[in-house]
């Protein structure tokens, strides 16, 4: 495959792919299954491509370029046009990603861990609030070939997927419209948007009401007062121009998540060795360079936006941090119950805190 020219695609049109992705027969809203009914013999698509899906828009300047680089690296190894990328949810939206991947609507799909940790509770090891691991430690914990990545992939394999790359996003903060949050009592009773169940558990521990909304819905919800605030990493705020409606940002380790490149495991095992190597190597670059880009963009682009927008940045002191840590201790016990295996939970937490 290496060195071939641009790919001709007469066999499958984009419209046909999108139509297939929307078919109810694919069962995209159902439970995860370890089968891939649409994977062709030999693994590759009829047009010789690797189909890549993600739901981010170009406004995510901290993450979207790493997806483009992943595709370029695959093309460099296998030939121009091999990576056929469907972005901005044109093939699979955030709710459809895993089921669509398992049903071979895509071969590789990018997804935020907070959206899939319900299916893979082990991911909560990096998502826990005030986990005892700072951002630098989290980066090392999810680096290529780390023990934690091996633990995660062993769990993913049980449901037919594997992670080929992981970007460690900066930690999550609490953002509010009308009330600054400096102690646990300040958030009690507020309706706060979340994107994952670990965030939801954290807010329940603080007495707030978690509200699940897609990032595309948050601006209007904040503007109308449907929600009082949100939990996210800073990239979501700037990428969705939410600094225009938010007034306060409480900086603390209220959670963390990764942005991952997942592959259909059945597909990965069927494709030729050179394809597996290309995907693995591209995933490694996605992990290392993508993590660096995410942090650089936050520091160099997003923080100046925060400062010029008028959002009040609230930095917790040690006493305040201790109050939030104590108030959210229950979340780890809750997470362990979701994992259902104390030895596995212990191993993952050790790999997070001491990579």
From TrEMBL:
GO terms for biological process: transmembrane transport. Coiled coil: none annotated. It comes from the Bacteria. Transmembrane segments: none annotated. InterPro entries: DctP_fam, TRAP_DctP_sf. Keywords: Signal. Pfam families: DctP. NCBIfam families: TRAP_S1 (NF037995). PANTHER family: BLL6794 PROTEIN (PTHR33376:SF15), PTHR33376. This is C4-dicarboxylate-binding periplasmic protein. It comes from Brevibacterium ravenspurgense.
């Amino acid at each position: 495959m290496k060195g071939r020219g641009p790919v001709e695609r007469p066999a499958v049109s984009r419209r046909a792919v999108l139509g297939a992705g929307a078919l109810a027969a694919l069962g995209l809203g159902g439970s995860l299954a370890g089968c891939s009914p649409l994977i062709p013999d030999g693994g590759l698509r009829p047009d010789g491509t690797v189909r890549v899906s993600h739901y981010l828009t170009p406004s995510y300047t901290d993450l979207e370029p790493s997806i483009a680089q992943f595709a370029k690296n695959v093309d460099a190894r296998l030939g121009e046009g091999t990576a056929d990328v469907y972005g901005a949810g044109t093939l699979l939206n955030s709710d459809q990603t895993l089921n669509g991947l398992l049903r071979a609507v895509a071969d590789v799909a990018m997804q935020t861990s907070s959206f899939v940790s319900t299916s893979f509770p082990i991911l909560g090891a990096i998502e826990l609030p005030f986990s005892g691991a700072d951002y630098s430690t989290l980066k090392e914990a999810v680096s290529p070939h780390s023990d934690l990545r091996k633990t995660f992939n062993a769990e993913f394999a049980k449901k037919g997927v594997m992670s080929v790359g992981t970007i460690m996003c900066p930690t999550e903060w609490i953002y509010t419209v009308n009330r600054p949050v400096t102690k646990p009592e300040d958030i009690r009773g507020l309706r706060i948007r979340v994107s994952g169940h670990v965030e939801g558990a954290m807010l329940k521990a603080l007495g707030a009401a978690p509200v699940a909304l897609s990032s595309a819905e948050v601006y209007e919800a904040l503007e109308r007062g449907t929600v009082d605030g949100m939990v996210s990493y800073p990239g979501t705020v700037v990428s969705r121009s939410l600094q225009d409606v938010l007034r306060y940002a409480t900086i603390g380790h209220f959670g963390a998540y990764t942005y991952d490149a997942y592959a259909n495991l059945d597909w990965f095992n069927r494709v030729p060795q050179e394809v597996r190597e290309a995907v693995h190597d591209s995933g490694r670059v996605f992990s290392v360079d993508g993590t660096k880009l995410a942090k650089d963009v936050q520091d160099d682009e997003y923080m100046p936006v925060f400062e010029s927008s008028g959002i009040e940045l609230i930095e917790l002191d040690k006493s305040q941090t201790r109050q939030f840590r104590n108030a959210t201790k229950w979340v780890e016990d809750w997470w362990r119950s979701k994992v259902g295996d104390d030895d596995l939970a212990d191993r993952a937490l050790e790999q997070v805190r001491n990579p």
